[in-house]
Specification:
There is one protein chain. The longest helix is centred in the N-terminal third of the chain and has 6 residues. The chain starts with 7 loop residues before the first helix and ends with a strand. Helices cover 6% and strands 46% of the residues. A hairpin with a 2-residue loop joins β6 and β7. It is mostly beta strands and 162 residues long.
């Protein structure tokens, strides 16, 4: 989606998709955004970050992108950290609640910010909204670890809630 020039923070605060904090899409689902009908797509990457302009073959400034994944936990967990990077502004909601809001223009730096998170056993929905004000992008990264930085055992990111 295209955002008005210089309005990255405003676009971050506004719902571009109705009920964005509680999105639970599947590949092929359609959604209304910016006066257009868009289709959710499945994407797999070997990289630790998402380059939305490469995914959609639409590079440029003043773009907004969403990604949603289902984080499955084999038990309730309160010992985890979400490590986030974005180019530029970003907002993250977990299970319908905002847990991260980053209003500054910046380049992508993996694991730049750390947010303690709690996951419940089973599927947890992570919605990541990224806005690119200028330069290449948008780009975003999320990485779940334990609080001491170790791999989070018993956690799996999926593209469906099952």
């Amino acid at each position: 989606m295209i955002i008005p020039r210089g309005d990255g923070v405003k676009a971050l605060d506004q719902e571009q998709i109705a009920g964005e904090a509680r999105l639970q899409p599947r590949a092929g689902d359609r959604v209304q955004a910016g006066g257009k009908t868009l289709t959710w797509k499945e994407h797999h990457s070997a990289e630790r970050h998402l380059d939305f302009s490469a995914i959609y073959r639409d590079p440029g400034n003043f773009k907004l992108a969403y990604t949603v994944c289902y984080v499955h936990a084999d038990a309730d967990r309160d010992d985890l950290v979400l490590r986030v990077g974005s180019d530029d502004q970003a907002r993250i909601c977990l299970n319908g609640e905002e847990i991260y809001w980053q209003p500054h223009a910046r380049g992508l730096e993996l694991d730049h910010d750390e947010i303690p998170i709690v996951l419940r056993k089973g599927p947890n929905v992570l919605v990541f909204k990224v806005i690119n004000q200028g330069g290449p992008g948008p780009h975003g990264s999320v990485h779940i670890t334990t609080k001491n930085g170790d791999a989070a055992e018993g956690i799996e990111c999926r593209l469906t809630p099952e």
